[in-house]
Amino acid sequence: MTKDPLQIEGQTIAEKYRVERAVGEGGFAVVYRAIHTIWNRPVAIKFFHALSLARLDRRELFMQAFIQEGALLTELSSQTASIVQARDIGTYMSPQGHWIPYMVLEWLEGCSLDELLEHEREEKLPPWSLTEMMNVIGPVASALEVAHARGIAHRDIKPGNLFLIGDRTRGKSTVKVLDFGVAKMMADNTDVQAALAKTGASVQSFSPLYGAPEQFTRSYGATGPWTDVFALSLVAVEMLSGRRVLDGTDLVQLACASADRDRRPTPRALGVPVSDAVEGVFARALAVEPAKRYARCGEFLAALTSAARITPIEPPRVSVAASRPAVIPGPPSNIALEETLVSESSPEVAPPPLVPSTGSGAILPSSASPPPADLGKGRRTSFLLGAGAAILALGTGVLLAFFNHSREPSAPGGPGAVGASGASGTPAAPSQELASAAVGTPGKPAPACPEGMAPIPAGQFFMGSDAKEAQPHEKPSHNVKLGAFCMDTYEVTAKDYKACSDIGKCRRAPVEVDWPAITAAERKLYSTLCTVADPAKQDHPINCISWDMATTFCKARDKRLPTEAEWEYTARGPDGRTYPWGDEEPLPAHLNACGTECVAWGKSHHVSLEALYPASDGYPTTAPVGQFPSGKSRFGPFDVVGNVWEWTADWYGDYGPDDGTNPAGPASGERRVIRGGAFNGSFASWLRPSFRYAQDPKAQSHGIGFRCAKSL
Q1: Which residue of 137, 482, 598, 674 is 20 to 30 Å from 387, comparing CA positions?
Q2: 102 vs 191: CA distance, rounded Å
Q3: CA 479 → CA 312, 573, 580, 614, 654, distances in Å?
Q4: CA 654 distance to own-chain centroid
Q5: CATH class name, domain 12-106
Q6: Are 76 and 142 in contact (CB under 8 A)?
């Protein structure tokens, strides 16, 4: 490395950073150690000298993006101590007239995990134990989950971007995730690319040694948080095996190794003796198809923690009232259960007890057909930078994306189906063809929606059903026209709701169920399923809340509850399909309903339950949102059926022959409509988007949650 690439040693930048020495240099950036002259503390300054190649008229645009990404990094690092902190940004004009943006980051003393692993290989030390590995990977996964909860992916997780501070003894160091970098922004910019081409340099936005299949070719789908799951798993297997995981010496060979279905780079494939449970977790995390992996690092960590029966070291967190809380990893719940059931003796849909009631409460429907509810009448409808060049993997020409690093909304849930529309937990937006057809204006783009919401284009459809098996309250089928609107991609989660209540905009979510005629036994049993009270279920849908609480949350987000018509159109679209995914009967891959796992839970709690399908969907009670990409709506939203019923804005009333344009239901009533079935659903009929239940708006059920809509 050149001693002083920018010739700035001894200079003071921005009147407060006295530059001491260069500590790392790559093709696109150089890092200096400096002293903050006011605080008299060391900092790292990363100068992105490759951006000086941009045209003069593009600098302002670059700087705005730079500011936004710096603010994002600051926000993320405020929520977890395991992401390097950004302190400042600015621009420097060199004596040669070069315009160079820079970022000031916290200074860290230590070494990268890459350096440590290389040293251990040279010393022929044994590989890491499962516990030692988890003490590093656990905090990293928790830190990444903070970003994943925002739909943001790192996309260049590798040992060189994991920095160990303090004691280098295995499991004793504090770990920092580094380098939410700038490579992708430069790779996507034609000005910079043209200038770099003259020097023979090239840019990739990931490290091929830790690349997921979708990073080598988009034929596997889009990148997202699930891409970080793949890379972090490779790092973990490298620690356990003591050697690099993907075989290959060039990009093509590494791409083939990453996507080789016959040899997945799991621990056992590299000779590491692990339990069946641990091997199974890695097999899923390293699946070739993004849709088959854990959608986010929080889910991966929870599964690995449970399989390994190890409690990972948690990084310290900074509590920020208005920020989204980080996921606390923990073993998945082993509870299973049912949702809202219908009472034969009451017109009300009782909030789902799992036990048959001997009184006036709800009872479990028979397997022949669920009893229809008498639903009422009258509807009208370092960075860090450590102190060494190894921290900068910049000289390889392979950097992480800092700009536009996977702003694809994702979440928690899981990668979507692989295909032309992208594979991701990020639901792909409706195709241009679909959007244009629904709107009726060829070529017109889908309306813009806030992050985390799917655009639902204007259109019309036949609401309800005239099918022979349809219940009376689903009839008659009638034509409805709707304007464009937005719908939440995922059901509102427990942590989303808690964030609202923590800042006083929402009432605190109850930790007990409540509904008319509830028994003491029901209250005791089902209150254990309220997700807000369970740290392991913060990515599960919020439940146990009333209609008013759901309405207040949506208003606090400048949204509202969807109307019945909007909900049904979102779930089924204009083509009259039977289920959100089409006409195929429900399978465990489609949704979280009552499978064999639910029946097993019932037996353990002396409750008689019936399976919808003769297999397990993996979740005896609620599931993290977005876990079933095969069952998502054609417009993108996940879990529109199954998981929890969802409150809608409408009072219940009978359908008229034609409810016209943007129907909103009766002006008043006694019960609100819920839609979509839940995790304890034993009947396929409950899962039809046309199926309706009515519920006391004050009910607080473990089987009812919600999502929000927004007018356009």
Answers
A1: 137
A2: 19
A3: 55, 13, 19, 36, 15
A4: 38
A5: alpha beta
A6: no
Q: Is 172 annotated as a binding residue?
A: no
CA gap 236, 175 in Å, rounded: 14
Write down the residue that tokens 């479990």 correspond to: 364
What confidence score (pLDDT) does residue 371 get? 29
Q: Is 710 helix (H, G, I), strand (E, B) or coil?
A: strand
CA distance 608 to 661: 44
CA distance 165 to 110: 5
Residues 53/196, Cβ–Cβ less than 8 Å: yes
User: What are 664's two structure tokens?
Assistant: 């909103």
Whether domain 112-308 has CATH 3.40.50.300: the reply is: no
Q: How many Cβ atoms from other residues are within 10 Å of residue 40's Cβ?
A: 8
User: Which pair of structure tokens corresponds to residue 318?
Assistant: 């900074």
Closest among 337, 317, 391 to 107, alpha carbons compared: 391
Rg (CA), the chain: 27
- pTM score: 0.46
H or E segment to which residue 521 belongs = helix 520-527
Q: What is the pLDDT of residues 236-262, one digit of tens each?
A: 999 999 999 998 888 889 899 999 999
Which residue is it, tokens 């849908």? Answer: 541
Whether the domain at 12-106 and the domain at 112-308 fall into the same CATH topology: no
Write down the domain spans for the chain: 12-106, 112-308
